[in-house]
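Hi Prof. W.,

I finally got the Glycosyl transferase prediction working! I wasn't sure whether to trim anything, so I left the full sequence exactly as given:
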Amino acid sequence: MADFYQNGVVTTLHNLAKRPLEELEKELVSFSEKRPMALILPSLFSELEGPALGKIIEHICDVPYLSQIVIGLDRADEAQYKHALKFFDALPQHHRILWNDGPRLKALDAELAEMELAPRELGKGRNVWYCMGYILASGKAESVALHDCDILTYDRELLARLIYPVAHPNFNYEFCKGFYARVADGKMNGRVSRLLVTPLLRALKSIVGHSPYLEFMDSFRYPLAGEFSFRRDVLNDIRIPSDWGLEIGVLSEMYRNYSSNRLCQVDIAETYDHKHQDLSLHDQQAGLSKMSIDITKALLRKLATQGQTFNSETFRSLKATYFRIALDFVETYHNDALMNGLKLDIHNEEKAVEMFASNIMTAGQSFLENPMERPFIPSWNRVVSAMPDVLERLKEAVELDYQEFKE
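And this is what came out:
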């Protein structure tokens, strides 16, 4: 049973009563008359062959309130795109696939790149950005949810609880972040959130001093959750990173654009499990190692925009402060795991902390050496200003791909 405690400056919507899914969906159907709803699914082609996505689609087929589903498909050739069309054809809702590696969308991306308006690197951020553009172009939805395609413990209640706060006509929330316990197979997971983000935020508070931004970020129970929902007007101004800093970047943009009373977080699942990234102790360009560097840089960049200055001495102090806080968290989580009959390997936890501490220094050095780094993808408002017909062309390219290859 969840508690009802409100932590920080962001409203938390708990799961207190185990409300029946049928009740939630009945309300959402009525909400959809005023606020049509959409779902974004950013996917790699490999996920179509994995154990999770097929089951996710089975659940989504029974969702009665969605007007639109937008699938962003990465790393797919023509044969794989055709396969994806058949794979998602089971969906009864209106749906379209953005074939990001197809010639039409690649040509549009090349035009934007010439104007320095395209995403600078491949990845989930780029995929999500184009899906957001398609949502704007199609004009079919007012409330939009987004979740990953590798959730092994998926149930459609997750989607209902995720989209409810931004779909309810009497709520004023513009954005909602999902949270959950990262527990599966008798283990406590979520190392990057537990052992990097939270202790790093606490360390930054100690080094920087009082910061409304850090207080805001520390209010989220699972800041790295890939599940969030929003009103359509959010899409016009948001600038998101194309690297592993996506989730931190989205929260930072919400802080910049909206008052905290327009934002919330919601408990969407009792347990949650998905594909796990390797720790990558010896490769800073892969796995959790790269993720930790990108996340740290995302936080540093945001603080810099607020006038905070950093130097090498700052990062040495930050690393030392983080390391002590993170090691204390290892003990805390170990005790929590034991009391709940879960497994937690202290040795592996401390190896992760040591790597994250080292990567804080790496991220800090990169931040100092690359002051002109621009990881953010431009907002769609800016892109439309530079290329007024871009949304229409994006929509047309997706539709032409569909018509050409749909059997």
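The beta strands are 11-13, 37-44, 66-74, 95-99, 143-146, 175-180, 183-184, 187-188, 228-231, 263-269. Does that look reasonable to you?

Thanks,
D.
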